[in-house]
Design goal:
Layout: E1 4-6, H1 7-17, H2 24-34, E2 38-40, H3 46-62, E3 67-68, E4 82-86, E5 92-99, E6 105-107, H4 114-117, H5 120-126, H6 136-153, H7 163-179, H8 185-188, H9 192-219, E7 226-232, E8 237-248, E9 251-261, H10 269-281, E10 292-295, H11 299-304, E11 309-312, H12 314-327, H13 330-349, H14 367-379, H15 381-391, H16 399-420, H17 430-440, H18 449-466, H19 472-479, H20 492-502, H21 507-516, H22 565-572, H23 588-597, H24 608-614, H25 620-630
Length: 644
């Protein structure tokens, strides 16, 4: 059989040579006659196309272009393992889902889950052997009863999806299975005062556990809460909230400590400090002197926490850089203004249904809202450009200039999200983020004028706003990221000094460290203390031996008084060392130097929060410090999506 190629391959080959003006029929003759290939004109079957499309989506997920959504609001049990796929702009990819169990991409038709229910992973959770599927008539009765309950007692419709409601129903099913239908419901259900007392008792018990956890974290120096302040524009009242971050059991933990209203008081430093201490005192923690706080650069909150270690919110600093930079260049200001004009027109004329995705509105308090606005216009460019022409809307940009700005800001969006995360260490990525910005904003002769201007302003504002507010804690956290330990050249002495001072050395070892810390590692043989042992009669020629007549006779040959081995040792060594120092940890500087000599490869799935516990036997002192620092968040608030 003669060799063949498919029509898709043939067209790809022809398109690759069409740039040299090769006519179609000439290329066709060359393939079929000269090379002896036959062409299969039959298109691919739908199953093959779907498989290739699924592979394409899976590759996008693997290389980080697409991501997997964390939560799904759908109520069916299959959505516990199936999740949406998010595109680069964080919008949902239509027609596809991702299975968390088998890591496969599945085809999904809107409002049709029949094929999903037949997926092998869904079958294992959908119909376990011990569960019974009720009839359709019983389901209708359940709907009727739940509807009557909602109408009479006025709970929200979503109450039937709550985990607590489902547990309650399961409990009642168990009661029915034990006692049958003849159960006095009024006798089974508790009265309101009983519920109130039980809820209060459970709350006090939970508060006691939380208070104990907070106290342990604070006393051990593992507490690093973030403080956020904002104003409710509707009631014109200031609020202060604290999220408590700490490291526990080699995991990053966080909890909302509380929310306080300033009660229309002026947000002075004294009032802010009083509210912060008040929130901690509610959990029986009065001393917050060693707590490290993460806040913005507000003058009042900075003054309120001047007695504590305070770190600036890195995402807030980056936001300041990216908010200020476009406003300092007229060309960039015109682009943003024109985009706002387009979005405003679209909102008023309400032709949103003609767009593939929704246009995003800009918000004055978030820089990334401008990026999302420009990105949404670029995604709908063909339709937007057509309507702009029909409505005669004048804009001060073209597609190339908008694309240049969006490409730059897209990388900053990725940096911003990394700094905002609290589920994994982020403080160790502050310095790498700054270095990445230097790389992204490196001038290029091919840059569009708008992009070149934006890069210039970002670099200048980064130096003034961000670099000026870096702390030694950020540098130490970067140093304690093992794959980058050898990369930090600037301020390395200061960083090593901070690490040494923060390591808690056992008291039994403190005095020995004070006398041996300086000459310990360089040249151990040069220490003169070892030869100074003339009192110990190690040899028969020492002056002490002639004092006793028995010493003239060998104890092995003339055993007048047989002695045990330990007594013989005590005889020859009257001042022995009674404790071994083999278990004493080495000094902090030595452990740090040994850590710096190690080279840790940066693999794709490297997790720093797991590396330190796994290597605790190598770096027992640095491990404790690393987990403390890596639990410090870099941002005071989580990233929120821009509304449409």
């Amino acid at each position: 059989m003669a060799p063949y190629i498919k029509i898709e391959e043939f067209l790809c080959l022809w398109s690759s040579v069409s740039a040299v003006n090769c006519p179609f029929f000439v290329f066709h003759d060359a393939i079929t006659s000269l090379l002896g290939f036959s062409i299969i004109w039959k298109p691919k079957d739908p199953v093959t196309k779907m498989a290739e499309a699924a592979d394409f989506v899976k590759n996008k997920i693997n290389n980080g272009t697409y991501s997997v959504a964390n939560k799904n609001k759908r109520t069916s049990v299959i959505w516990s393992i199936l999740c949406d796929i998010l595109k680069e702009d964080e919008t949902v990819l239509d027609g596809w889902l991702f299975c968390r169990q088998c890591q496969k991409v599945l085809k999904f038709l809107h409002k049709n889950t029949s094929n999903l229910s037949r997926h092998k992973c869904c079958l294992t959770i959908r119909r376990p052997s011990e569960l019974i599927i009720v009839s359709e008539n019983d389901k209708k009765v359940a709907i009727e009863k739940c509807t009557q309950w909602v109408v009479r007692d006025c709970p929200p419709f979503s109450a039937v999806t709550g985990a607590g409601f489902k547990k309650k129903v399961k409990f009642f099913l168990q009661i029915g299975a034990i006692y049958g239908e003849q159960v006095d419901v009024d006798d089974l259900l508790p009265d309101p005062p009983t519920l109130s007392r039980k809820a209060k008792s459970d709350a006090e018990e939970k508060r006691s556990l939380i208070s104990s956890e907070i106290k342990k974290a604070v006393d051990s120096g593992r507490a690093s809460p973030r403080v956020d302040m904002w104003t409710d524009q509707y009631v014109q009242r200031n609020f202060l909230g604290i999220t408590f971050h700490y490291e526990g059991e080699f995991k990053l933990c966080d909890m909302i400590l509380g929310l306080k209203s300033m009660n229309f008081q002026i947000s002075t430093a004294d009032n802010i400090l009083m509210k912060i201490k008040g929130l901690f005192s509610e959990f029986n923690e009065e001393n917050i002197d060693i707590v490290k706080f993460v806040t913005d650069r507000g003058a009042n909150i900075t003054k309120a926490l001047e007695g504590n270690t305070r770190l600036n919110c890195s995402s807030h600093l980056l936001s300041n850089v990216l908010e200020k930079s476009p406003n300092e260049a007229n060309e960039l200001k015109k682009i943003v203004k024109s985009c706002k004009k387009i979005v405003k027109y679209r909102k008023k004329s309400n032709p949103q249904h003609t767009l593939e995705t929704t246009l995003k509105s800009a918000r004055p308090t978030r820089w990334n809202s401008n990026y999302k606005m420009m990105k949404s216009i670029l995604d709908n460019w063909r339709r937007v450009d057509k309507i702009r022409g029909e409505a005669d809307i004048h804009v001060d940009f073209n597609k190339s200039s908008l694309l240049a700005v969006v490409d730059i800001l897209g990388d900053f969006e990725r940096i911003f999200k990394k700094l905002q995360t609290s589920s994994s260490p982020s403080i160790c990525f502050v310095l790498p983020s700054i270095n990445k910005i230097l790389e992204l904003c490196e001038p290029n002769i091919l840059d569009h004028s708008a992009a070149a201007l934006l890069k210039e302003r970002i670099l200048e504002n980064k130096r003034k706003i961000w670099m000026a507010h870096l702390s030694i804690w950020h540098k130490a956290a970067f140093f304690l990221y093992p794959p980058a330990a050898h990369l930090q050249e600037e301020d390395i002495l200061e960083t090593k000094g901070l690490c040494s001072s923060q390591i808690q050395v056992p008291l039994s070892h403190t005095s020995s460290l004070e006398s041996t810390e300086t000459p310990r590692t360089p040249d151990p043989p040069e220490t003169p203390e070892t030869p100074e042992t003339p009192e110990t009669p190690e040899t028969p020629g020492t002056p002490e031996t002639p004092e006793t007549p028995e010493s003239l006779e060998s104890p092995n040959l003339f055993p007048k008084n047989p002695k045990t081995l330990s007594s013989e040792n005590e005889f020859f060594f009257p001042k022995p060392v009674t404790e071994s120092n083999s278990n004493f940890p080495e000094s902090p500087p030595d452990e740090i130097r040994r850590y710096m000599r190690q080279r840790v490869p940066l693999s794709q799935n490297f997790e720093v929060i797991e590396w330190w516990p796994n290597n605790a036997h190598l770096y027992p002192q640095l491990r404790k410090l690393a987990l403390k620092l890596l639990s410090i968040p870099t941002s005071r608030a989580e990233l929120t999506e821009c509304p449409p």
